[in-house]
């Protein structure tokens, strides 16, 4: 094996290794989830060298500089206050999604009007309108680096999710046709079709290494696949309604699901065992996520009327023990007021940090 390059990953903190093995370019990660501004850089680099054979003595200085850059990022003030910066009348119909590029200099929006729009974050100026879809645009994502445009044709129903693997070599799409497809991001060709669900796929995701794929379905189950073999590793069963959202923790050993049965669940990603049921919502859960350390999850329920953010529908759950077989969770919820706007308008709110 020959190390080709080292890449910095700010979120979650880590270093990505690009190396050559048997003529093939491969990648793997060094996760630094416990890194703090006070971590001893020299001791950490020595520990990395002992655990990772690709990091030799000649790379010591380079790795040290990367760790220091991560520490500088962690030292940045995170106790920000936010203010309303711009209100953009983005589309003629409601938005479905929004995504920032890596630098935050521009963002893209998807809409029920069947278009995507690219915007300059600082000025609010519309840069491009992307047309060609014949139905609602449900999922959007930037790749990195970006520049190539492909039309991915293969699903026979609406696409509910679309995202890149961490190194942007693969694209994963989930569809109402009950399948997920893997695409080569360099040429737009389908390399695999993942099957097994009995109903529409509502969400899908990679883990942070790109080795595992998880799917969530309206059949009330989730599945975990190996990205290399395309085989199903385990099936997650227990929800009493459709699963609308699924996500890995940063370590890749836990999965979080949100369901129309008003609960979220934490699962063992390898065995499929349900480790905990998170209750408390009074309506369907449509979104949930881990923080980058994997010790806090946030869940959000659906909003009965209008469009907007209802802070009463958010719940934060914090792990009070390590992610073991039965992690204890403490729940808190906000009772702040909600903001809605009529369906005839589709403004996009952007917030700036003071």
* Overall number of strands: 27
Number of helices: 2
Terminal Cα separation, in Å? 47 Å
User: What is the helix/strand order?
Assistant: EEEHHEEEEEEEEEEEEEEEEEEEEEEEE
Query: Largest sheet at a glance?
Result: 4 strands, antiparallel
Strand content: 35-45%
Low-confidence stretches: 304-312, 321-354
Radius of gyration: 21 Å
Helix content: under 10%
Helix-strand makeup class: mainly beta
What does this structure look like?
- It is found in: Cytoplasm, Cytoskeleton, Flagellum axoneme; Cytoplasm, Cytoskeleton, Flagellum basal body.
- Keywords: Cell projection, Cilium, Cytoplasm, Cytoskeleton, Flagellum, Repeat, WD repeat.
- WD repeats lie at residues 88-129, 152-193, 194-235, 236-277.
- This is Dynein assembly factor with WD repeat domains 1.
- InterPro entries: WD40/YVTN_repeat-like_dom_sf, WD40_PAC1, WD40_repeat_CS, WD40_repeat_dom_sf, WD40_rpt.
- The chain is mainly beta and 354 residues long.
- Helices cover 8% and strands 44% of the residues.
- It has helices spanning 41-51, 60-75, and strands at 2-9, 14-21, 24-31, 82-89, 95-100, 106-111, 116-120, 126-130, 159-164, 170-175, 180-184, 190-194, 201-206, 212-217, 222-226, 232-236, 243-248, 254-259, 264-268, 274-278, 285-290, 296-301, 307-309, 314-319, 329-333, 339-341, 347-353.
- The protein has a four-stranded antiparallel sheet, with no helix packed on it.
- Strand 7 (116-120) and strand 8 (126-130) form a beta hairpin.
- Helix 1 packs across helix 2.
- The radius of gyration is 21 Å and the shape is globular.
- Residues 304-312 and 321-354 have low confidence and may be disordered.
